[in-house]
Amino acid sequence: MDKFEKTNAQFEQAVSECRALFEKKLHDYGASWRILRPASLTDQLFIKAKRIRQLELTGLSLVGEGIRPEFVALINYGIVGLIQLERGFADNVDISNDEAMTLYDRYAKEALELMKRKNHDYDEAWRGMRVSSYTDLILTKIERIKEIENLAGQTLVSEGIDANYMDIINYAVFGLIKLNEA
Fold first, then answer.
1. Mean pLDDT over all residues of the chain?
2. 169, 45 contact by CB (below 8 A)
3. 8 Å CB contact between 144 and 49
4. Is the Cβ–Cβ distance between 181 and 22 less than 8 Å?
5. Which residues contact 90 (CB under 8 A, 6 or more apart)?
6. What per-residue string of b and e applies to 111-121 under the rule 16 or more CB within 10 Å gives b?
């Protein structure tokens, strides 16, 4: 197995873990996230990333959960963000759990394909990075999303919100892989 095949397998394993949790939460809550407006979803991503950064800086968790679950949440909310971009927000739950899982799988696959292309072009550079750098890059992507939202999407040269969600997903997956390897 070459290095790219190893990374692909690790990515698929990480997303499989995230998918399993997403499916369980979908069972418990339905697609309640469909009511999230774009800014609310961005703020949810922000909260998760800030918590990771705080845990990295202090090493102290008063609620007993570590960094790992927050990276899982970033992946799942990133995929929710992509779904919301496609569908818009709703005033109530308007999709079935099966439909939500189909959409989840589609965007998880798109994220994997993007990661494969970038991983090839960057020759696994992410493996030499620190997990804290993924956190900072994720926070940067969230700030970019906020600015794009503030500009009502009217950017001059920037990638869209979807590209930033994809990057958040991929950096969070890299974080999970690195934490698993530690």
1. 96
2. no
3. no
4. no
5. 34, 35
6. bbeebeeebee
User: Which structure tokens are listed for 103?
Assistant: 């959409």
For 64, which DSSP code?
A: S
Tokens for 59, please give them.
């090493």
Residue 105 tokens, joined: 């799988």
Kindly report whether the global pTM for this prediction surpasses the value 0.90.
yes
DSSP 32: G
Q: What type of residue sits at position 91?
A: D
* pLDDT tens per residue, range 92-109: 999 999 999 999 999 999
Mean pLDDT, residues 145-170 taken together: 95
Q: Say whether pLDDT at 157 is over 80.
A: yes
79 residue type, one letter: I
